[in-house]
User: Fold this.
Amino acid sequence: MSDRIAFTIIGILTIAVVGVVGALTLGGGARSTGLDVSALPLVNACLNTLSAGLLTAGFVFIRRGRMTAHVTCMLGAFVVSTLFLLSYVTYHYHAGSRAFTGQGWVRVVYFTILISHVVLAAAIVPLALATIYRGVRGLRRYAPFGPHVRIARWTLPLWLYVSITGVVVYWMLY
Assistant:
């Protein structure tokens, strides 16, 4: 697959994901479907925690030269984050958004974390997909790992931040 096709697909997926999440988040309240989704926020926090753990382990493995373990952890983090996204969309479709009820200085802290989390979560979609694409190209010997490493240096800390702040947002809301 050419870079042009790959990055077009990444762009389309990014627009679709950000559009769906944005529509659900801004689109109003709960829909009466009878499905009990009350456990999903905890599931989402657990998935974010697992994603952060896999990302950290993947980083440690690549620093130690353990390529197979690195790839396994990073693809695992991607799968877990995809499951998170599906669970998140399901929850917000059925339950709507939960209002933050804290008052005073904690409200400023919460919204600062939430806004940075949301903006960077949207940025992670194309970054993660591009990083994975570049890594796979390097594994298949179509291209050197340089482009993968350059983008991964941005993707990893931002993805970790999004995963960790997702848990913090959950903790502050629930």
Remarks:
- Residues 134 and 148 are 5 Å apart (CA to CA).
- The chain has one domain: 37-173.
- The longest helix spans residues 105-139.
